[in-house]
């Protein structure tokens, strides 16, 4: 009997038993800590990756929307209908953006310059996803990020070739707005397109007011070769100009577009 008690006492007091309990406690602690780290850091990271994926999908869907709407804008189709997935965002026809265009045109009849000008409100089809916005505006697709900067996803359909400059003005009407996570449809109807032709233009001045003015600034400067004359972040406005010698022909198309979101 004494030998059995002595054996049990030796087992309880054994260093091996203490080490085994300590090792189990450390392992359990590491597992709990790992789960806590995954919960605190891993989940937000996965959520951020998901949100980024949704934003990329929205950008891609607007890149598909753009050429379809431009068919209506340039009279290649009377109407278009494009289906978009929302991912918990809101889509609306909104904004007060506008373009002001003025030119210096040589009048050979009286040997002087005329300065015709034209201004139209553009407005946008905009998808608000969290703090990001993606929009179709005047034949281009744009994105604006939380820090305020904006870029062109798909460039506008302006064109300059063989001394001919094409400037579109798309005027969007409609006020519908829809929020949710399902599918929605953007339906556009074209109107009567007017085309104005100006010959022997020696200077073009353009002012654009838009929430995406930074993207417009890069486009006008880098793609159309225009000099930036004035930048007004407080009013989201950019002014640019370019001189042409010899003079060029300028075609300005004004295209009304009625948009419904279903």
List keywords for this structure.
262 residues, alpha+beta, ten-stranded mixed beta sheet, six-stranded antiparallel beta sheet
Give a brief description:
This protein has helices spanning 2-13, 15-73, 213-223, and strands at residues 79-85, 89-94, 98-107, 112-114, 117-121, 124-129, 132-137, 140-144, 150-154, 159-161, 164-173, 177-180, 183-190, 194-209, 227-232, 237-261. It has 262 residues and is an alpha+beta fold.
Model description:
There is one protein chain. This protein is an alpha+beta fold. It has one domain (50-261). The chain contains three helices and 16 strands. The chain has helices at 2-13, 15-73, 213-223, and strands at residues 79-85, 89-94, 98-107, 112-114, 117-121, 124-129, 132-137, 140-144, 150-154, 159-161, 164-173, 177-180, 183-190, 194-209, 227-232, 237-261. Strands 1, 3, 4, 5, 10, 11, 13, 14, 15 and 16 form a ten-stranded mixed sheet that branches. It has a six-stranded antiparallel sheet with strand order 9-8-7-6-2-12, with helices on both faces. The termini are far apart. The mean pLDDT is 86.
* Coarse shape: elongated
Distance between the termini: 89 Å
Summarize the main sheet: 10 strands, mixed
Radius of gyration: 31 Å
The fraction of residues in strands falls at over 45%
Find the count of extended strands (DSSP E, 2+ residues): 16
Quickly count the helices: 3
Summed over residues and divided by their number, the pLDDT gives a mean of 86
Oligomer: single chain
The count of domains is 1
Instruction: Decide which structural class fits the backbone.
Output: alpha+beta
Taken in chain order, the helices and strands follow as HHEEEEEEEEEEEEEEHEE
Task: Classify the helix fraction into a percent range.
Answer: 25-40%
């Amino acid at each position: 009997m004494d030998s059995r008690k002595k054996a049990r006492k030796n087992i309880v007091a054994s260093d091996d038993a203490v080490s085994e309990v300590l090792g189990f406690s450390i392992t359990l602690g590491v597992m709990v800590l790992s789960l806590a780290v995954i919960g605190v850091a891993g989940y937000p990271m996965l959520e951020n990756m998901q949100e980024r994926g949704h934003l990329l999908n929205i950008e891609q869907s607007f890149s598909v929307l753009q050429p379809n709407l431009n068919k209506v804008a340039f009279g290649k189709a009377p109407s278009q209908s494009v289906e978009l997935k929302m991912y918990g965002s809101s889509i609306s026809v909104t904004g007060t953006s506008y373009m002001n265009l003025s030119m210096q045109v040589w009048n050979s009849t009286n040997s002087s310059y005329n300065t015709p000008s034209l201004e139209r409100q553009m407005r946008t089809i905009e998808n608000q996803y969290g703090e990001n916005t993606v929009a179709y505006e005047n034949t281009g697709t744009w994105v604006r990020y939380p820090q305020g900067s904006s870029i062109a996803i798909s460039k506008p359909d302006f064109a300059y070739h063989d001394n001919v400059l094409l400037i579109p003005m798309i005027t969007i009407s409609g006020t519908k707005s829809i929020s949710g996570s399902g599918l929605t449809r953007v339906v556009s109807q074209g109107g009567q397109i007017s085309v104005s032709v100006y010959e022997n233009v020696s200077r073009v001045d353009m002012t654009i007011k838009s929430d995406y003015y930074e993207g417009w600034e890069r486009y006008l400067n880098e793609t159309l070769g225009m000099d930036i004359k004035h930048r007004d972040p407080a009013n989201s406005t950019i002014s640019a100009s370019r001189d042409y010698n010899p003079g060029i022909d300028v075609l300005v198309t004004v295209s009304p577009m009625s948009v419904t979101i279903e």
